[in-house]
Write a structure and sequence with these properties.
Elements (H helix, E strand, L loop, with lengths): L2 H8 L3 H4 L4 H11 L4 E5 L12 E5 L3 H5 L8 E2 L15 E5 L8 H11 L2 E7 L1 H5 L2 H6 L2 H6 L5 H8 L3 E4 L2 E2 L20 H5 L2 H4 L3 H17 L1 H5 L1 H4 L3 E2 L3 E7 L1
Parallel strand pairs: 1-2, 1-4, 2-3, 4-5
Antiparallel strand pairs: 5-9, 6-9, 7-8
Length: 248
C-alpha cells in the first residue's frame, strides 16, 4: 500500500489527532530562517507550514488534501519521488514525518535536493521507536514494521546533513505522533488516537487489539504506573525525533 492509499484509508480523522505543536513549529521556523519560498513535500494537512511566506504543498492523498484548512497554501497532488516543479524552484524543501512513507525514499530525497538548495527533514530514529514501552510491552509486532522504514541517521547520511537536532517530546505534546502519549497511556485506549498513528494502522488489527486489552487492564489496575514511575517524573522524553538540515 502506498502512502497515499494508506492515508486515504486511515486519515479521515487525521486532523483530530495531529495538531500543530508550537514547540516543533518554532524549531522548524528557526531552521527555515529567512527563506522566502518553501515546497512542503508530503504536506498532509499542513500542520507545520509557515504562514508568512510563499509555500507550495505537495501531497498525494486526497483525504489529506480534503482536511487542509480554508486559506491554506496551494496544493498539488504528487509524490515525493516525482515533484512537478522545476530545478531550484524554492529556497527550502520541507518534509515533516513523511519520508518513511515514500516508496523510494532515496529518490525522494534526491528530488528535495533538486528543487531547493536547502532541505529540512523531520524524521525519527526507528530503533528508538522499537524501544518505546507501547511497542516493547504491548504490541511488539510494530517493531518489525519500524525496522523496515528509513531511520533518521540514514536520512541524514543520504542528505549529507549539516545539522541534526533532537526534538524531545514534552509530556503535554499536542501533535499525536505515535509516541506522543508516552506519559499518558490512557490516551491509547481512544480509537481516534490510534487511528492517527500509521504504525498501528499498518499492524495486524488482532495484534493491536490484544495489546490494547492488556494496556487497558494495566492502566485500570495501576500496574502501568507502578512499572513506569521513572517516566512519570520526566517533563520530556527523547523518542528519536530529529530535525535534519542539509545545504545541498
Amino acid at each position: 500500500m502506498t502512502g497515499a492509499e494508506l492515508y486515504d484509508e486511515i486519515g479521515t480523522e487525521y486532523s483530530f489527532g495531529r495538531r500543530t505543536d508550537p514547540r516543533w513549529m518554532a524549531a522548524i521556523l528557526a531552521a527555515v530562517g529567512d527563506a522566502g519560498s518553501i515546497i512542503d513535500v508530503g504536506a498532509g494537512t499542513g500542520s507545520y507550514e509557515p504562514n508568512d511566506r510563499t509555500v507550495l504543498a505537495v501531497e498525494p492523498s486526497g483525504e489529506m488534501v480534503r482536511q487542509r484548512p480554508p486559506g491554506a497554501c496551494p496544493t498539488v497532488r504528487a509524490v515525493a519521488e516525482a515533484l512537478p516543479v522545476r530545478d531550484h524552484a524554492a529556497d527550502v524543501a520541507l518534509a515533516v514525518l513523511t519520508v518513511h512513507h515514500w516508496t523510494d525514499w532515496r529518490r525522494g530525497l534526491a528530488e528535495l535536493r533538486r528543487v531547493a538548495p536547502r532541505q529540512i527533514v523531520l524524521a525519527y530514529d526507528t530503533r528508538r521507536h522499537t524501544e518505546f514501552w507501547f511497542v516493547r510491552e504491548y504490541v511488539p509486532e510494530v517493531a518489525a514494521l519500524e525496522l523496515t522504514r528509513p531511520s533518521a541517521p540514514d536520512i541524514a547520511n543520504e542528505l549529507g546533513a549539516s545539522s541534526v537536532t533532537p526534538l524531545p517530546l514534552p509530556w503535554d505534546f499536542t501533535d499525536g505522533v505515535f509516541p506522543a502519549y508516552w506519559r499518558r497511556p490512557a490516551a491509547y485506549l481512544d480509537p481516534r488516537v490510534r487511528s492517527a498513528c500509521s504504525a498501528l494502522a499498518q499492524t495486524a488489527p488482532a495484534a493491536v487489539e490484544r495489546g490494547i486489552s492488556r494496556l487497558r487492564a494495566d492502566v485500570h489496575s495501576g500496574r502501568w504506573h507502578e512499572r513506569h514511575q521513572d517516566l512519570l517524573a520526566l517533563d520530556q522524553w527523547d523518542a528519536g525525533f530529529r530535525l535534519i538540515v542539509s545545504h545541498g
